[in-house]
Amino acid sequence: MGYPYSHEKEVPILSEHFGDPEARTLEGWKARGGYEALKKALDMSPEDVVEIVKASGLRGRGGAGFPTGLKWSFMPKDKAKPHYLLCNADESEP
Fold first, then answer.
1. Who is most buried in 10, 14, 17, 18, counting CB within 10 A?
2. What residue spans define the domains of the chain?
3. Could you report the per-residue pLDDT of 40-80, keeping only the tens digit for each?
4. Residues 94, 79: contact at Cβ < 8 Å?
5. Rounded distance between C-alpha atoms, residue 35 and residue 25, angstroms
6. DSSP string, 44-85
């Protein structure tokens, strides 16, 4: 069932196609809905995207579990250029 562990109430999202070798190619992934959420988000305003992320309850994976939508809402609202995206790729956690 699930990969690598499953629970009867589990609803796989990210791991839904892990066992399907056809889903491991870009074309296979796109055939299973890959990029659809991105296409939808690109047609929305940044504020609407943030509100959806807030409503989802998505949280960071750090120890504090900080709400992702709240963090995204801190981004400046002006149209100043250039734009930079900074990612913390090293949480130094086991």
1. 17
2. 1-43, 45-94
3. 999 999 999 999 999 999 998 777 889 999 999 998 888 77
4. no
5. 13
6. S-HHHHHHHHHHHT-B-SSTT--BHHHHHHTS--S--SS---
Kind plus residue range of the DSSP H or E element containing 43: none
C-alpha 35 chain-centroid distance: 11
Amino acid at position 75, single letter: M
- The answer to whether the beta carbons of residues 12 and 2 sit under 8 Å apart is yes
| Burial readout 63-87 (b: 16 or more C-beta within 10 A, e: otherwise) | eeeebbbeeeeeeeeeeeeeeeeee
For the chain, give the percent of residues with pLDDT over 90: 38
